[in-house]
Amino acid sequence: MASNIVKHENHGILSDADKVEGLAIMMNPKSVAIVGASQNPDKVGHVILQNYLDVGYSGKLYPVNANASGKILGLESYRNITEIKKPIDLAVIAIPAKFTSELITECHKAGVKSIVVVSSGYAEIGEVKLEQELIDLANKYKIPLLGPNCLGVMDLKSRVDTLFLPTFKIDRPSIGGVSFVSQSGAVGSSTLDIIANEGFGLSKFISYGNASVIDETDILNYLAKDEDTKVILYYIEGVKRGRAFIEAAKKATLKKPIVVLKGGRTEAGSKAAHSHTASLAGSYEAYDAVFRQFGLIRADDIQDFVSFSKIFVSQPKCTGNRVAIMTNGGGVGVVGTDSLYSNGLQLAELSEESKKALKKALPPIVGVNMPIDMAGDADDKRFSATLDIISKDQNIDAIMAITLFQTPGADSRVASTLIHYGTTMEKPMVVVSIGGSYTGVHKMMMERSGIPVYDSPNTASRALAALISYSKYLHRMGK
Amino acid sequence: MASNIVKHENHGILSDADKVEGLAIMMNPKSVAIVGASQNPDKVGHVILQNYLDVGYSGKLYPVNANASGKILGLESYRNITEIKKPIDLAVIAIPAKFTSELITECHKAGVKSIVVVSSGYAEIGEVKLEQELIDLANKYKIPLLGPNCLGVMDLKSRVDTLFLPTFKIDRPSIGGVSFVSQSGAVGSSTLDIIANEGFGLSKFISYGNASVIDETDILNYLAKDEDTKVILYYIEGVKRGRAFIEAAKKATLKKPIVVLKGGRTEAGSKAAHSHTASLAGSYEAYDAVFRQFGLIRADDIQDFVSFSKIFVSQPKCTGNRVAIMTNGGGVGVVGTDSLYSNGLQLAELSEESKKALKKALPPIVGVNMPIDMAGDADDKRFSATLDIISKDQNIDAIMAITLFQTPGADSRVASTLIHYGTTMEKPMVVVSIGGSYTGVHKMMMERSGIPVYDSPNTASRALAALISYSKYLHRMGK
């Protein structure tokens, strides 16, 4: 682990700064060599090359295969990476583990600037020596290396995409402000797939596998500085350099929210994590204490990645927990109220001024108490009148608009009204819309416009509570 | 409330049995009169009649409108219900509240067997006298009446559908074994809409509104006996006849699972419930104690309705909590293990026999420990070999198959394998599949075949815990 590094001669060793720089090159390469590229669709190298073509990568692509003759997927191919004789920003390595050491030396000769090894068959199956060779060579030649045993990297803007999962099996997200780091390829790919079906977009995905050279701390240092990244998601089972990670996190959380799902929170889970990634998970209590102390946001499930991301990426900070609920569905307002208190929030009280204004603006059927039940026939005008008043009420810190699209008055004008207020007012707003096809269309319309929409009051309240807790941390830290 | 009933002359009063019988007629009527039916698409009576036509109701339909001339939506119309002169099993009333009392008398004259009043404008807005008239007349004429201020009833088999929500705004579920009862129309309609997009189907939906005559206890008595209903879902804010409801629930839970979401669990929620349905909610602790004592299953959120329904409607009972996890995605197996313990379950240990058999049947890369990580290249053969062995292991009470469809080996043959074992073995099985479009197709394939599929390990564990808790209750009660 960390002690591996000190074994090397000093002159060649990769510094933390080298690795951060390596990640920057890896995520935005002008040229990519794919070693193991193949015409055979069953090969990993085929899927990777095909994906580069599918997503429209605009840099240079060099397929490399020792048995190559002629073109691979229409591109000129090379038998050896040294034959390319042009600058290579990134080499993606997808060949059997036993051949990789030799290849690293060839990468050095070819002037490769960064390497992603997606191949598996190293420390994770006991081949510790093979992995050590990889580490030694990367350090010797000073080439930042990600992996092995990983999915690699995806950047939605530069269109780098080393995932060896076909695009028909896993949807690709749109461009956005969330970056996601996963120690597990499985958690990574399945989470990517659900993010792709949400309204918010992704900036970068990094699956780092065995973290032999570049580890979770380097990635955190890189993403903390990355301007396109507004929110960072982490799935980790263990941390290689505990102290360094905490230092990095401490700085990073002052700049942007970091949501962490820790695999191995329970004793049995920790045992499973150990046999999965050989992570020495440590007690979760210790992790949890550190998370709290440094303002990291704790996720309890994969779905939290999605529900937390959408509020953090779009909504303003909020240090108060008085939440106004407005709804066109009375019963869901009741469930919503319950959900606030289950998550440490409270129902706001309307100011006398707001009460008067609401009485004037709304029909007599609408009671001017919290939660505001605008009734089942509420249309965009009633939503607008209500939002206009409560968005200015100083007794209210945040707004939960529970909007059911099954009712007669709810249509795309209501969605537009929510988008208008949700994107222009100073308070954070979450929308809860529960339903099927018709609701889904309106949900997507709002989400693509930067309004976080949830399919249950409890999920919305959990997300709001996370936003408020992080905002309070920043406030305590003088930010 | 309950005391209203004793005011009436005894000879006309509706008994509990009358109301249960009334519900049976209401849910499967051979003829329906829709009072307030209209050619004007803005009218509730138009939407109801159109829905009956849309869903293909095969009984007789009689549109009634005081101003009718000629046909309404192609059907012969009547100015007064007494003009129909044919048997009328159900009258759906969708006219202003002030006209309903007179109409009940006309229904009596016309020999109507049951009434659903969808109109609002009664006790819920302070018009207590108007509601009392309705109660008095229904009792006097001995006509079981549902409502007012409700969405009414839906039966997927008989195709009765009094919902005044257009079919394009709310998807209709397929036919299945779950019946859903909601005091709130909003919770009802939005939940219906999400159920429609799940693989399991619905038997009946009953929105009872003010519960003036038929109340939640009558409905429970009816559904407990209904053979098509395998699982009952309840959204309630308050119960009119506490003791009677408990008695009914006590009997019903011995026959079928009852999942209850209680609106107004917190003080503020309870206050909101009071202003919503004038329900005197009572302390949630008291409710919770009763729920526990009589084996009712507590839902904490609307999404629990869906996740609990799918396991109860399809999986066998299970009194042990030792859960085997098998997965083709290591990291999600770790998260899955954590989720078991967060929900009071535990990871099963393989018997020595199973370990030997698995070692023989699976490639060396697969460790034969829990959770079983079949590796990312697992195909249907590996799933099948694993299931074959663990389905027979006496140390295992239930199986969680975490199946990621992003991986190369996972395809519809894997889904078929899961369906085969999930529907033939004696242990309950849940599948966790996290993802987008490609995953969604396989999820629907499995759900339609009776396999409960969840989009997060935590949701799956919650559902398993609910199944086990209910099974243990039945066991304690000697069932």
From TrEMBL, chains A, B:
Key words, A-Z: ATP-binding, Ligase, Nucleotide-binding
A Gene Ontology molecular function term of the record: ATP binding
Gene3D superfamilies: NAD(P)-binding Rossmann-like Domain, Succinyl-CoA synthetase domains
Database matches in InterPro entries: Acyl-CoA_Synth/Transferase, CoA-bd, Ligase_CoA_dom, NAD(P)-bd_dom_sf, Succ_CoA_lig_flav_dom, Succinyl-CoA_synth-like
Segments passing through the bilayer: none
Pfam families from the UniProt entry: CoA_binding_2, Ligase_CoA_2, Succ_CoA_lig
CoA-binding domain location: 26-122
SUPFAM superfamilies: NAD(P)-binding Rossmann-fold domains, Succinyl-CoA synthetase domains
Protein name as it appears in the record: CoA-binding domain protein
